[in-house]
Design goal:
Length: about 130
């Protein structure tokens, strides 16, 4: 599981063996979601570059995006196992998803704002 605030809270709140069982279920889901997002990023970048004509650095960036997608797609297998039928696990999972989703959304908004700010700074430097 990615090291996040929610992951750390679960690590210290659950007994070690239960956290390990939760992690074995959530870890593949996390990477499958990231792989899907990386795939969409590859498609969006490729489409943008088709419109603006590829440059040498564009091919490097496309290769890096494909590498990230490949890594995440390889790791992102989901096997629910016996936890899928455990009521306590399902309660913990719902709570975890609620906290983790909120934190993840905040992180993505922060990242987007940082990227946008960086783009503005670079654009102002290039004029």
């Amino acid at each position: 599981m990615a090291i996040t605030f929610a992951g750390i809270v679960l690590y210290f709140s659950l007994p070690r063996h239960e956290f390990g069982r939760v992690q074995t279920v959530l870890f593949p889901v996390y990477y499958a979601f990231n792989a899907a997002m990386s795939f969409f990023a590859v498609l969006a970048y490729f489409r943008t570059q088709c419109l603006t004509k590829f440059e040498h650095t564009s091919w490097i960036q496309l290769a890096l995006l494909l590498a990230v997608f490949s890594i995440e797609a390889y790791v992102g297998k989901l096997v629910l196992g016996e936890l899928a039928h455990c009521p306590r696990y399902l309660r913990v999972l719902r709570t975890f998803r609620r906290y983790h989703s909120t934190i993840a959304m905040g992180t993505m908004i922060s990242l987007g704002c940082s990227v946008y700010s960086t783009m503005i700074i670079v654009d102002s430097m290039c004029r």
